[in-house]
Write a structure and sequence with these properties.
The complex is a heterodimer of chains A (about 425) and B (about 110). By secondary structure, chain A is mostly helical. Chain A has one domain (about 1-385): Ammonium transporter AmtB like domains (Ammonium transporter fold, Orthogonal Bundle), CATH 1.10.3430.10. Helix content of chain A is about 65%, strand content about 0%. Chain A contains 17 helices and three strands. In chain A, strand 1 and strand 2 (about 100) form a beta hairpin. In chain A, helix 5 runs antiparallel to helix 15. With about 110 residues, chain B is an alpha+beta fold. Chain B has one domain (about 1-110): Alpha-Beta Plaits. Chain B is about 20% helix and about 35% strand. Chain B contains two helices and six strands. Chain B has helices spanning about 15-25, 70-80; strands spanning about 1-10, 30-35, 40-45, 50-55, 55-65, 90-95. Chain B starts with a strand and ends in a 17-residue tail after the last strand. The chains are: A mainly alpha (about 425), B alpha+beta (about 110). At the A-B interface, helix 10 and strand 3 of A face strand 3 and strand 4 of B. Strand 3 of chain A pairs antiparallel with strand 4 (about 50-55) of chain B, so a sheet runs across the interface.
Amino acid sequence: MTLAAARIDTGDTAWLLAATALVLLMTPGLALFYGGMVRAKSVLNMLMMSFVSIALVTVVWLTAGYSLVFGQDAFGGLIGGLRHAGMAGIGPDSVQGTVPTLLFATFQLTFAIITAALISGAVADRAKFGAWLVFVPVWALLVYVPVAHWVWGPGGWIREGLGALDFAGGMPVEITSGASGLALCLVLGPRLGFKKDAMRPHNLPMVMLGAGLLWFGWFGFNAGSALGANGLAAAAFLNTLTAGCTGLLGWLLVEQRRDGHPTTLGAASGAVAGLVAITPSCGSVSLLGALAVGLAAGVVCSYAVSWKFKFDYDDSLDVVGVHLVGGVIGTLLIGVFAVHGMTGGVEGLLYGGGLGQLGRQLVGVLAVGSYAFAATYGIGRLLDRLIGLRADEEHEQNGLDLTVHAESAYDHGVLGHGAPVSSSLPTAQKVKHQA
Amino acid sequence: MKLITAVVKPHRLDEVKTALQELGVHGLTVTEASGYGRQRGHTEVYRGAEYRVDLVPKIRIEVVVEDADADAVIDAVVKAAQTGKIGDGKVWSVPVETVVRVRTGERGPDAL
């Protein structure tokens, strides 16, 4: 006990306490980011899907999730054991690395929370709220938990067998949420009026505020993943700032050339795309690498968000276009830009490391992406059959805020409608989308 | 009596109001309106998806005046609302049978 207590580094612990709070703030930030993008009639429902994820995933994580991810490997690198279920055997004196195990577990919990919340963007405006309350815990246990064990858990096969790198969650967070979002939006089907009605963001300042909070919290996400207050944390911190900037610039550049206007939604989306891509790579690339990773994500994701119109899947708020695509870009580019000075060994293609690491990253991407997609699709189909995942058509038309939560987000109308009548009128039509 | 209705660009409201006050018009009703004429709408782009917004925000001004004043009021509204660009709006008038002041019960021109 005293030996263990002596191994706690107070500097590391102080930083990780702060980082944990930062990452938790990302989920309310995401709620605002998403909430501003939906129509005024379902903004509260959008916010709620994120907020309940905090509560649901926390319960799942502390009862079983943490143990299954970070407990001793129980089955061939695929899943951890249940020895620490209910945080059994872990107390204030338990130590993980140089920080208290309880803090390490809480830090990791905040990652699981936001990953579940991210999926909600793909099913905006039409998911049955009760079904979401069932989906989140089931999904966390069956999808997030195994993937996180593969990538970060002791004996996890991607980390130890394969040797793919993922510093802060390109695979468990970004690719898993993106592939799961794709699966779930296919199960649910498109929103009524998809590709016909205008589904304009109802509050872009709210989107910008959300993007700002996400960026702020992302410093905890990425620099906190160094699990210490040290040089690696500082490098990851700087890479995080850098990639968000080049992502923003890349997206705006495309918009200016393609659409003729640099938009606020583009700036917010570009920054997030850059941050997504640097998430796996912030601990393995140099500053120049981070510039390139962010720029690549900003440019590619600005096109990827249009794929849903071409291939007919209503990924409403672009979880696929930003998180799946950005996560794949960032995870793969480790194989190109990894430098010895950051990784302590692994070098990417550009630094003479050959194609080996790129190949390992690709295997990780494919394995995580296809597992998350297939498992989520299966869970989605099953729950749809058992309890129904899709909200009533009438609820969807009138807005989930009123029909599910019995609330209105805004008291604009003098007649007591809450939302102005005009917000539910078809005031615009969709005329074109970029291919 | 005549009911004069003007649908004009929102930023011309102050000019129209001032012009009507100068003419001695005692009251008016203003509502926010949406619509389009020849101006049609505009396009907006969100994440590369282009939306055409047909309905343009407008201000609808209504005043009831005596028959003799109608032409002067219409001219004043047109002059005040005009920018010379497409989308300036419309002004029209229709006859009014009765007007009652709710507070006093006065009827006809006395109620104006």
